[in-house]
Amino acid sequence: MLSTLLPLNRINDFLRITNEGVGIDDRIEQWFAPISEWVTARVFTSIGIVGYDVPIVVIVLVLGALYFTLYNNFANFRLIGVAIRAARGKYDDVDHHSVDVVVGDPTPGGDVRETPIKEGVVGEVTHFQALTAALSATVGLGNIAGVAVAIALGGPGATVWMILAGFLGMSSKMVEATLGVKYRKVDENGKVYGGPMYYLSDGLKHKRFGFIGKFLAAFFAFMVIGGSFGGGNMFQANQAASQFKLLFGLESHRVGFLFGLFVAFLVAVVIIGGIQRIGRVTEKVVPFMAIIYLGASLVILFLNLPAIPQAVGLIWEGAFNFKAGLGGIIGVMIVGFQRAAFSN
Questions:
Q1: Residue environment code for 239-271, b if the CB has 16+ CB neighbours within 10 A, otherwise e
Q2: Cβ contacts of 40 within 8 Å, gap of 6 or more
Q3: Are 13 and 56 part of one and the same domain?
Q4: In Å, what is the CA distance from 266 to each residue of 92, 185, 228, 237, 260?
Q5: How many domains does the structure of the chain reveal?
Q6: Which residue(s) pair with 48 in the sheet?
Q7: Domain carrying residue 130
C-alpha cells in the first residue's frame, strides 16, 4: 500500500541502474521522472472546459485573484503610487505605520495612518530589500520561457491573458503580504516570523475555524517543501544547466550534476544567513538582473521596431478572434492563465 501512495521502490531502480554504466544525470532523471509524474497527475487534476483540460489549481488561483481584486476595489491599480513610494524608502523612518486593512485611501495626505507599534521593534529588512527578495523569486524562467510556451501553445493572443492574469495576481500578492504582516510574530530579539503558516492558523482561529486553520497551515508547510524543490529549485537549475551545456557544447553526463552542486553551494551561502543576508544579496543582485532583463527586452524591440505594429495587431486579434468562436477565445485564455499562474 505504501508503494501505491509514494513510489519508494524507485530506490531499488536507482541502485540497479547505477550498476548499468548510465551517467549520473540520466540516473537521477530516470529515478525522479516517475515520482514527478505521480505528483503532477494529482496536483494538476483537470476538468474539461469547452474541450480543454484546465487544471483545477489554475481555476482556483485565477478566481481567487479576481475576487481579491473586486473585494479591494482594484487596489492593484489604485495603490501603485503607494507601492512605489514604499519601495523607494519613503516610509522607512516613520515613527508609526499602518497594519489595518482599510477601504479607500490608506495614505491620506501622503502620510501613513498612525497606529501604535511595539516600542523598539524594527523590521529585519528594509522595504527595498523585501521587494528585491520577492522579485528574485518571481522574475525568472517562468517570465521568459513561460511567455514563449504560451505563444507556442495558444498563439500571440495568449499574451493578453497573461498580462491580465499578472494584474490580477498583484491582488493575491497584496493580500498575502497584508495578512503576513497582520499576523506576524516578533520575538524578544526582534526576529520576525510570519507567512501563510501563521495567518492561516491565527486568522481562521479568529473566525472560529481554529482546527481547520491549523490543518491548512500544516498542510501548506508540508506542500511548500515540495514546491521549493520543484518549481523553486529543480526547474530553475535544470534550465540553467541545459543552457550552460548548450552554450559551451558540453556532452558529459556529469555536467548537469556538477552544475547543480555549484548552484546549490551558491544558494546555501546566501540562505543559511537568514532573511537579512538574503535581503543584502538581493538588493545588490536584483537591480542588476532587472537592468539586464529590461535592457535585453528593449534591445529586441528596437531591433524589430518595424514589426511591432503588426505584432500588436496579431496579439489583439488572437486574444479576441471571434472567427474562431467562443471555444477558440476560451482556449487562448486558458493557455495564457496557465502560464501566468506559474510565472507569477
A1: ebbeeebeeeeeeeeebbbebbeebeeeeeeee
A2: none
A3: no
A4: 30, 29, 16, 12, 10
A5: 2
A6: 53
A7: 44-343
**Helices of type H across 252-273:** 255-271
Same domain, yes or no: 163 and 232: yes
Distance CA 24, CA 253 (A): 6
Q: Are residues 262 and 318 in the same domain?
A: yes
pLDDT in tens, 186-244: 877 777 788 899 999 999 998 889 899 999 999 999 888 877 777 667 777 887 888 88
d(CA 40, CA 42) in angstroms, rounded, equals 5
CB 204 within 8 A of CB 216: yes
Q: How far apart are CA 79 and CA 283, in angstroms?
A: 23
**How many other C-beta atoms can be found within 10 angstroms of the C-beta atom of residue 340?**
29
Q: Residues of 1-40 as b/e, b for ≥16 C-beta within 10 angstroms? A: eeeeeebeebeeeeeeeeeeeeeebebbeebeeeeeeeee
Do 28 and 50 lie in one domain? The reply is no
SS3 percent helix, strand, coil of the chain, rounded to 5, is 70, 5, 25
Q: pLDDT of 82-124, one tens digit each?
A: 888 877 777 766 544 444 443 344 444 444 444 334 444 456 7
Confidence check: pLDDT of 322 > 80: no
Identify whether residues 76 and 152 lie together within a single domain.
Answer: yes
User: What DSSP assignment string belongs to 126-143?
Assistant: -HHHHHHHHHHHHSSHHH
**Are residues 36 and 74 located together in one domain of the fold?**
no
Angstrom distance (rounded) from CA 333 to CA 312: 17
Residues 190 and 284 reside in one and the same domain = yes
For residues 41, 62, 164, 340, the Cα torsion angle rounded to the nearest 10 degrees is -30
Of the two residues 141 and 265, the one the predictor is more confident about is 265
- CA-nearest of 176, 180, 185, 178 to 121 is 185
Same domain, 50 and 167: yes
